[in-house]
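Suppose you are handed a protein chain with no further information: no name, no annotation, nothing but its sequence. What can you learn? This example shows the usual starting point.
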Amino acid sequence: QEEVERMKTHEVDSAAEREKLRAALDEKSRLIESLENNARMKESNLNSLRKAVDEQSSIVHKLRSSEASQKATIQSLEEKIEKNSRCHEEALSKMQKEVERMKS
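A reasonable first move is to predict its three-dimensional structure. Written in structure tokens, the prediction is:
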């Protein structure tokens, strides 16, 4: 009889232990699933950030290209203004010489 009681107690203890292990396994499964979800979210965020960086890089490239083009245009205009000023100065000098010649 005592042996039967001991076996019943052992069975109950074993069942309780199995239930405790099952609960721990379920909890670990939930934690793993949560970690996997976090990893997926972080990967998605990284992809979004990579895309944003690529877009910003493209914008920077376009702005640098535009800046170079504008600098070239400014330089060209400055050269034309300088040439134009020289032409005007030469024309003015000729006109002044003509006026001086006409006075004498």
